[in-house]
Amino acid sequence: MVKIRFLGHAAFEIEGSKRILIDPFLTGNPVAATKPEDFDKVDLILVTHMHGDHVGDAVKIAQKTGAKIVAMYDIANYLVERNKGITTIGMNYGPTEIDGVKIVQVPAWHSSGADEGFMVGNACGFIIGIDGVTIYHAGDTYVFKDMELFGELYGIDVALLPIGGHFTMGPKEAAKAVELLKPKYVIPMHYNTWPPIAQDPEEFKKLVGDKAEVIILKPGETFEL
């Protein structure tokens, strides 16, 4: 069994044979379902890009738990050079396997975040294979045709897609992404955290129709496969 817990905004916990956090923005997140102090054991932390609402508490949780931070090569180097007591694994677009978890880093159409006057890395999404389940976390992105390849190559069971608009896809574009990806299930994310990304997930569900089963989770709720 694989459990996917929505932590709020774009943050998720995936729990199976390994415990994985994705974009753990908890401190300062007005809709967060948990705090970084609540995590005692984490194996991997996946970071899609350097914006504060995605890298979030990755370093703090890694320092506490010994989790490995997986990110774009430039971001991984940047984080490990500036923070003591963490281990990072830098990769680029393509597949790898880390501690028995299959990970494919894929492009995302988004900026990554700047610090000290320069951009750090590129934005990405992750396709994660764990215990026979394939999960796609799109990160922050607009819809793009390559998503069709992701579905063809990896057979996605669950897609975690932003629907907030303004910074990412809105409901209309995310529904198109579902059409391209062809997942069995889709969980909307990155909406209703702040006013600029206010959306009604039921509108997204209507737009998706019968293309996939839409699972609307409140922060703290879990979907099990």
TrEMBL record:
Q: Which InterPro entries match?
A: Metallo-B-lactamas, RibonucZ/Hydroxyglut_hydro, UPF0173, UPF0173_UPF0282_UlaG_hydrolase
Q: Which GO terms describe its molecular function?
A: hydrolase activity
Tell me which UniProt keywords the record has, alphabetically. Answer: Hydrolase
Where does the record place the Metallo-beta-lactamase domain?
Answer: 8-190
Q: Which Pfam families is this protein grouped with?
A: Lactamase_B_3
Report the sequence similarity comment from the record. Answer: Belongs to the UPF0173 family.
Q: What is this protein called?
A: UPF0173 metal-dependent hydrolase TERMP_01317
